[in-house]
Amino acid sequence: MEKISVLNLKGEKVKDITLNETVWGITPNDAVLYDAITLSRNSLRQGTADTKTRSEVRGGGRKPWRQKGTGRARQGSTRAPHWIKGGIVFGPHPRSYAKKMNRKERRLALKSALSYKVLDKELTIVENFTVETNKTKDMKNILNNLNAARKTLIVVEELTDNVILGTRNLNNIVLLEASEINTLDIVAADKMIITEAAVKTIEEVLA
Questions:
Q1: pLDDT tens digit string along 92-108?
Q2: Which one of 96, 123, 153, 177 has the lowest number of neighbouring Cβ atoms within 10 Å?
Q3: How far apart are CA 130 and CA 92, in angstroms?
């Protein structure tokens, strides 16, 4: 696999690094990637929406008028679906949106997402992400040096207070430790900034 530049926080090249091809250089599997994204998005859904059927709405126990002789259509209840305040047909009821996915598929989806970041040139590797202050202004300057995109994912080996506080007020930044990376956050980000130590941790787990 070709070498990728490692930058410092000023955006200057420090050295080159060769990524593990079995993690960052596979042929992405779009079908598995789609399933993993669907699973992640479904897990965010509460599934608590509920509507009442005609047997659950209040009232409607008495027949509104006699069966014959009125000139009107026959009706058995004022809570039938076509009546105002009637029951809802085929409405949502509490349910689970959870999907199942085996471990090999999860790993393949994660590798596919990482490989897409390399293929699309949306990956930036930094030597470290050690910042001296917790000011948002200083963090913005660092991100500008690294050509951060509209939505940027920052992956570090271990979170520090300065990094957390410096990015807290930036709505377009997602901050994760290497052990927390997931397919949805990687795919959703326009750019991924990752430390060299985090790269090694990911490769140890997925290779």
A1: 999 999 999 999 999 99
A2: 96
A3: 49
Instruction: Tell me how far apart the alpha carbons of residues 192 and 188 are, in angstroms, rounded to a whole number.
Output: 10
CB 144 within 8 A of CB 193: no
Report the side by side order of strands in the sheet with 173-177.
13-18, 3-7, 123-126, 191-195, 152-156, 173-177
**For 178, which DSSP code?**
G
Q: pLDDT category, 28, cuts 50, 70, 90?
A: very high
Angle between helices 103-119 and 30-43 (to 10 degrees): 110
The alpha helices in 120-158, defined as continuous H runs, are 136-145
Strand runs (DSSP E) across the chain, as ranges? 3-7, 13-18, 123-126, 152-156, 173-177, 191-195
